[in-house]
Design goal:
The complex is a heterodimer of chains A (about 210) and B (about 260).
Chain A: E1 2-5, H1 13-21, E2 26-29, H2 32-37, E3 40-43, H3 49-58, H4 61-71, E4 75-78, H5 80-84, E5 88-89, E6 94-95, E7 102-106, E8 123-128, E9 130-131, E10 146-151, E11 153-157, E12 163-169, E13 171-179, E14 182-185, H6 193-205
Parallel strand pairs in A: 1-2, 1-3, 3-4, 4-14, 5-7
Antiparallel strand pairs in A: 5-6, 7-11, 8-10, 9-12, 12-13, 13-14
Chain B: E1 5-13, E2 16-17, E3 21-22, E4 28-29, H1 32-41, E5 47-51, H2 60-70, E6 77-80, H3 86-94, E7 99-102, H4 104-108, H5 111-120, E8 125-133, E9 144-148, E10 153-158, H6 159-169, E11 173-178, H7 190-199, E12 204-207, H8 213-221, E13 227-230, H9 232-235, H10 241-250
Parallel strand pairs in B: 1-5, 1-13, 5-6, 6-7, 7-8, 8-11, 11-12, 12-13
Antiparallel strand pairs in B: 1-2, 3-4, 8-9, 9-10
Helix pairs in contact in B: 1-2, 8-10
The chains are: A alpha/beta (about 210), B alpha/beta (about 260).
């Protein structure tokens, strides 16, 4: 059973629908016992880091997520979920879970593309990932594949070994991070068509 | 680099599309779920559904369409038409849409933008703008005025001022429709699109007037649009999305070309 963590951070049904479409049993849950008994965990979310961390703590799920990580369960972070597993977010100056050391920074308002044209924030739309480290969850992806992003903040891992893939949007940032049994993407793989579903399927079979 | 998005728009009335697609093999499909699947499989970057159901007691049919679309396609899609309250927005989003588009209800009650952004996040709230060229005047300094009721009712509100205000209230994106260009297939309204897009920091989807791939190239370059809405030019099989994307790619516009 795959537990999709519900912590009042956006509509999680789209992640559940994509996992069901691939044929894997899943449950959207905020129940710590259900998280404990799950084989693998997906940690999605949209919204702001501050209120997300407040909800996680109130529901007692911060400890449950740390425990799952230490037990070696395969874990997948998506979008805000990816930011929350870092140490600290600039958004609302929020101390986060700290599963992967590093911080979350905001895009600077004056970032420009290669022609010097000012870029819009948040980044909203399709962009590529450059794979810097092989990872089983990224198996079969092509460099030209694109993924759907909606975000104004991005993770900055403290150790470059934790960067799995990068994306260019004015700057080069870590769009896929990974450490031991956790992999996390800044983009919405549940909304990224075929390559997104392929990654999600890889995760559902990943044995770290 | 971010790709420019190509977004087919489907008008839906009581659960059926009003313009069924006539593909090149002449199969006519009026089911919005099947049309969404077709466009998803053929390279659409996002899909917009516009509910033009007249009677409010038949609006729940749309919620069922949204639910079935969400089980079928795995790219973002938005729903507009007849959204008047945060409760209406919630229904559409819970059924599986990523974004909800509000248009005349936002003009009549601008606070709806802020309420929606607070409840669901800015990225969920698309401001639909129907705009008509009037020429510059003291009341309409940009020369473009907001209209509602399909262009029949001018509101005396300047389009550029409204776009900026909506952004500050929390709109995450603008879908900018030119009433003058809409339905002409003669090309998007470039000066309007360029003006709005360069004065807001949220993405702008150009709408109204698409008839051939050259029009998209124009609005995505000179028009500074982040995305382009298309309807008849693909619904009637005149062009396919892969054809349009090849044309844009050859013209130097970055588009998503594997899916």
């Amino acid at each position: 059973m795959i537990a999709i963590i519900d912590y009042d951070a956006g509509n999680l049904a789209s992640v559940a629908r994509a996992v069901s479409h691939l044929g894997y049993a899943n449950v959207v849950t905020r129940n710590v016992a259900e998280i404990r008994s799950a084989d693998r965990i997906i940690f999605p979310g949209v919204g702001a880091a501050g209120s997300a961390m407040t909800s996680l703590k109130r529901l007692g799920m911060d400890a449950a997520l740390h425990e799952a990580f230490l037990q070696g369960k395969p874990m997948l972070g998506i979008c805000l979920g990816t930011q929350i597993i870092m140490g600290f977010s600039e958004e609302n100056q929020t101390p986060c879970l700290g599963i992967i050391p590093g911080v979350v920074e905001a895009f600077s308002p004056d970032i420009c593309d290669s022609d010097g044209k000012r870029l819009k924030i948040p980044q909203m739309g399709w962009n590529r990932i450059h794979i810097v480290r092989n990872h089983p969850v990224l198996n079969g992806l092509k460099e030209a594949d694109e993924f759907y992003f909606v975000h104004g903040f991005y993770p900055v891992p403290a150790h470059s070994d934790h960067i799995v893939g990068t994306t260019r949007y004015g700057i080069q940032f870590a769009s896929v991070v990974g450490y031991r049994n956790i992999l996390a993407t800044q983009f919405h793989l549940e909304k990224s068509g075929r390559p997104g579903l392929a990654m999600l399927n890889n995760f559902c079979q990943w044995m770290p | 680099m971010l790709s420019k998005r190509i977004i087919p728009c489907l008008d839906v009335r009581e659960g059926r599309t009003t313009k069924g697609i006539k593909f090149k093999d002449n199969i006519d499909i009026g089911d919005p779920v099947e049309m969404a699947r077709f466009y998803y499989e053929n390279g659409a970057d996002e899909i917009v559904f516009y509910d033009i159901t007249a009677s409010s007691d038949k609006r729940d049919i749309m919620i069922d369409v949204v639910r079935r679309v969400a089980e079928t396609i795995f790219i973002p899609f938005s729903v507009g038409g007849g959204i008047r309250s945060v409760e209406d927005m919630r229904k559409v989003l819970l059924a599986g849409a990523e974004k909800v588009s509000i248009n005349s209800a936002a003009i009549l009650n601008p606070d709806l933008i802020a309420q929606g952004a607070k409840a669901f996040g800015n990225q969920c709230v698309v401001l639909g703008m129907d705009v008509k060229f009037t020429g510059k005047s003291s009341g309409i300094p940009s020369g473009y005025e907001m209209v509602i009721n399909g262009g029949r009712k001018p509101m005396g509100i300047d389009a550029l001022e409204w776009a900026r205000m909506a952004e500050s209230l929390g709109a995450g994106e603008i879908c900018l429709n030119s009433i003058d260009a809409d339905g002409t297939q003669d090309g998007y309204e470039i000066p309007l699109t360029a003006m709005i897009s360069s004065h807001v920091s949220i993405p702008v989807i150009a709408s109204g007037g698409a008839g051939k791939p050259e029009h998209l190239l124009d609005v995505l370059t000179r028009g500074c649009a982040d995305a382009a809405l298309i309807a008849s030019m693909v619904h009637y099989g005149t062009y396919s999305i892969p054809e349009i994307k090849s044309f844009l790619h050859a013209g130097g516009v970055k588009v998503r070309n594997t899916w």
